[in-house]
Design a protein that fits this description.
By secondary structure, this protein is mainly alpha-helical. 77% of the residues lie in helices and 0% in strands. It contains six helices and no strands. Helix 1 (3-45) runs antiparallel to helix 2 (52-76), helix 1 (3-45) packs parallel to helix 6 (124-176) and helix 2 packs antiparallel against helix 6 (124-176).
Length: 187
């Protein structure tokens, strides 16, 4: 087999795996950020007066925050439907792929796995076929993950902007009443 073909396929597979890891890292980082700001919101929550402006802002904040959390969950655990091409190809592909964990787990014992792996290594076109199917699956998975990441980023921005508007409104509201929220700075 041309080693350049296999190395190219393996580079593409590695790039797709790295994109998958980055999507999960982004989701976890943004979820942590949203969680920290939600704690700040809980601290200010007891100071929020109930009126039309605050009810609207709090509603926007909670809806955006909950939808962002759902989007983050969909990044970590996306749902993917099989396409018609994949279901047609299942007749051509082996029962269990010895190169990836899901296929490895389908083998009843070590000797069956070893035999299948040796057969795969001898059949060079099968190696390319197995890796290209894996690349295709990872690319579809990445597309779904990044769609949810984009949605979650927008929702986090909306939630944090709403929270900052609420905090600014609180300062303006209490300042107009003559109540000082911040303690005086004395020397």
């Amino acid at each position: 087999m041309d080693s350049n073909r296999l190395s190219s396929v393996l580079r593409i597979l590695d790039a797709e795996n790295r994109l998958l890891e980055r999507a999960d890292q982004k989701a976890i980082s943004l979820l942590s950020t949203l969680g920290v700001f939600m704690v700040f919101f809980i601290v200010y929550y007891r100071l929020i007066p109930i009126n039309a402006i605050t009810v609207v802002l709090i509603s926007i904040y909670f809806v955006a925050s909950l939808m962002a959390i759902v989007s983050f969950i969909m990044v970590v655990r996306p749902r993917i439907r099989q396409s018609e091409e994949e279901t047609e190809d299942t007749n051509k592909s082996p029962m269990a792929e010895p190169a990836f964990f899901a296929g490895i787990c389908k083998f009843p014992n070590l000797s069956a796995y070893r035999q299948s792996l040796e057969n795969m290594i001898k059949d060079e076109p099968a190696i390319i076929d197995i890796y290209t199917r894996q690349i295709f699956s990872l690319a579809r998975l990445n597309a779904v993950k990044y769609k949810h990441i984009q949605r979650a980023v927008l929702l986090v921005i909306i939630a944090l902007t709403t929270e900052l508007v609420i905090v600014a409104y609180l300062f303006i509201y209490y300042y107009s009443l003559g109540v000082e929220i911040l303690p005086m700075i004395t020397r």
